[in-house]
Amino acid sequence: MLAMDQGVVEEWLSEFKTLPDSAVSTYAASLKDKGALVPALYKVIRENYSDLLEPVCHQLFEFYRSGLPQLQRFTLQFLPELLWSLLSVSAARDPHTSGCIEALLLGIYNLEIVDKDGQSKVLSFTVPSLSKPSVYHEPSAIGSMALTEGALANHGLSRVVYSGPHLQRETFTAQNRFEVLTFLLLCYNAALSYMTSTSLQSLCQLSSRVCICGYPRQQMRRYKGISTRLTVTSEFLVQLITGIHYALCNGEVELGSKALDDVLYRAQLELFPEALLVGNAIKSSLHGAALKSNNKEGARSIQVEITPTSSRISRNAVTSLSIRGHRWKRHESSEVSVDNEAALGGVAIPEISVTGVSGERMANGDSLRPRTDGRTQLDGDTLGASPEVSLDHRSHDSTTRSQEVRRQKSVRRMVENEGSGSASTGRSQY
Fold first, then answer.
1. Per-residue pLDDT tens for 314-329?
2. CA separation (Å) from 265 to 98, 220, 310?
3. Residue 342 CB partners (closer than 8 Å, separation 6+)
4. Per-residue pLDDT tens for 28-59?
5. Reading across the β-sheet that carries 367-370, which strands appear in turn?
6. Which of 57-61, 279-283, 354-358 has the lowest mean pLDDT?
7. Rg of the Cα atoms in the chain
8. Integer Cα distance of 354 and 335 in angstroms
9. What's the CA gap between 63 and 247, in Å, rounded?
10. What CA–CA distance (Å, rounded) separates 205 from 46?
11. Nearest alpha carbon to residue 196 among 64, 14, 11, 37
12. Phi, psi (degrees; rounded to nearest 5) at 272
């Protein structure tokens, strides 16, 4: 360890001890500006025989016990490196060099399993339903789901999984070691969005080392660390995969991919179904666009498919507003027809709209339909009544209008001449 790094750590140790209680929050906000402090602390943790290791662990525990979220996150960023130091020392069977690290990890664990009143906490987790979208899946990507009686009964029901209460631990044993470490990784994963890239890299390295030590893949990776196989549990690997997933989607593509392969390699050897299920699901869901993103300083997030929004209503759709507008046009057309009758000396002239379209509706509800013999049949209420048909004056020019009026007069004369013969039927044919 360089003298410059040692000086930075010693200054950090002495500075916090002299702070009054009122200045702790301000000091916590200024920790992110100390760029040389975090690398120097990593070097202290990696050197198990350093004289600064014990005071550093003690101060990190004081940070976590303060209850300030910023100080707690500052301590949690070193958790992967602390876990590896503990596991490597345990594999080397040299527990005397890891006493301060064990005390720090047990202190964090015992603080997290109780609430502010000292009562044991019970954590609850909601398992997402496949019928509803989540950050991991979209129902549209799965395909159609059969609406069976069992599926309808379970639709909308949320399954809640509980964790706890957890027992307090005073020392690490072979039986409780990974129970404590798994819970600590759970606390670390809850604050993943606040972790630095250095901490994510340390997590990926921890995953690879734990999973390949003592196995043939260690020789392929040319890792010269400990060669003793480390005992792991399925729950511990699942927590590792959760952190690796976040690292993969936030810039650590190379280390994250290697760590995920190593965890799946160990899960296959140990036949851990939970780790295999979660690891293979994450590996299958990774998109090329997410892996190519190398922005480590930008906003960190996991890319997911977004449900498309519904298409907009067409402008030609029939709505209540368009129906009201259509009625106003009909009233305007009727007023124009009355004005034309007044201009012609008060004589009501029937107006027939010849469009050539079968079933064309008139203004009074009658219709002009073609007959099978090639003639046209005009429906009316009575024989002598003049059918009232509105003519769209805006779509005809003056020449067409005059021809239409002459044709209407001719039809009227034919109706009057044939009135005596067809009065009982109420129809005029021509």
1. 455 555 555 666 555 5
2. 29, 13, 43
3. none
4. 888 887 888 999 999 999 887 788 899 999 99
5. 360-361, 367-370, 376-379, 427-429
6. 354-358
7. 42
8. 20
9. 25
10. 13
11. 37
12. -95, 105
* DSSP helix/strand/coil, 127: strand
Round to whole Å and give the CA distance between 36 and 390.
89
**Structure tokens of 212?**
């390949």
Stated pTM of the model: 0.64
Report the alpha-carbon distance of residue 157 to residue 134 in Å, rounded.
14
State the DSSP H helix or E strand holding residue 236, giving kind and residue range, or none if neither: helix 234-248
Residue in the block written with tokens 């016990």: 65
Note the pLDDT tens digit of each residue in 160-200. 877 778 888 888 888 889 999 999 999 999 999 999 999 99
Which residue is listed with tokens 């009135």? 419
- Amino acid at residue number 345: G
Biggest distance spanned by C-alpha atoms of the chain: 126
Q: Collapsing DSSP states into helix, strand and coil, what is residue 293?
A: coil
- The DSSP call for residue 120 is B
Cβ atoms of residues 232 and 210 within 8 Å: yes
Cα angle 411-341-329, degrees, rounded to a multiple of 5: 100
Query: Which tokens belong to 124?
Result: 């609850």
The length of the chain, given as a count of residues? 430
Is 48 in contact with 56 (CB distance < 8 Å)?
A: no
Amino acid at 137: H
What are the phi and psi torsion angles at 124 (to 5°)? -120, 140
In sequence order, what DSSP letters do the residues of 144-158 get, joined into one string? -----HHHHHHTT--
What crossing angle do the helices spanning 234-248 and 273-285 adopt, rounded to 10°? 10
364 vs 337: CA distance, rounded Å: 13
Are the CB atoms for 345 and 352 separated by under 8 Å? no
Instruction: Please tell me the distance from the alpha carbon of residue 96 to that of residue 236, in angstroms, as a whole number.
Output: 25
Nearest C-alpha neighbor of 186 from the set 166, 159, 210, 211 = 166
**Average pLDDT in the 116-126 region?**
80
How many other CB atoms are there within 10 angstroms of residue 289's CB atom?
Answer: 8
Question: What DSSP letter does each residue of 14-39 carry, written as one string?
Answer: HHHHT--GGGHHHHHHTGGG-TTHHH
